Amino acid sequence: LAIMQNLLKRLQKELLALQNDPPPGMTLNEKSVQNSITQWIVDMEGAPGTLYEGEKFQLLFKFSSRYPFDSPQVMFTGENIPVHPHVYSNGHICLSILTEDWSPALSVQSVCLSIISMLSSCKEKRRPPDNSFYVRTCNKNPKKTKWWYHDRCLKSLGKK
What we know:
InterPro entries: Ub_conjugating_enzyme, UBC, UBQ-conjugating_enzyme/RWD
Enzyme class: transferase
Shape: globular
Strand content: 15-25%
CATH class: Alpha Beta
Order of helices and strands: HEHEEEHHEE
Largest sheet: 4 strands, antiparallel
CATH superfamily: Ubiquitin Conjugating Enzyme
Number of strands: 6
Subunit structure: Homodimer. Interacts with FANCL. Interacts with STUB1/CHIP.
Number of domains: 1
Structural class: alpha+beta
Strand order of the largest sheet: 1-2-3-4
Distance between the termini: 29 Å
Protein name: Ubiquitin-conjugating enzyme E2 W
CATH architecture: Roll
GO molecular function, one term: ubiquitin protein ligase binding
Number of helices: 4
């Protein structure tokens, strides 16, 4: 019970922060939170002056009962999945803070800022080299993927 109370307290705090001071181009989809405090949709707009300027995306955040000690499940959802070397066509995002580099000190806002930064620094719209194979063989939950991170290239090593 105490774990659930701590989870709810943390999520409510982050919800307020996202509503009152959202990262640039990000808006909490209020309807999504009315359905469940543990599943949010954040509407996102591509930053001005980037390859994604004017494009609209949606991020799905799912929080387990172990949050914030366990990272949220975060993926793109909806009609428009960004074409990016670290974003698979099924919405899965290869970003180390979503898995092994997660820390309880991070928040929804810091994840949003990292994703904005990742998209904004993109020089060429293209899918990851293993997109077709990954999308065919991966788990529905991107947190079940064993990611291999490297400066210039990335690979998914399949299911955990």
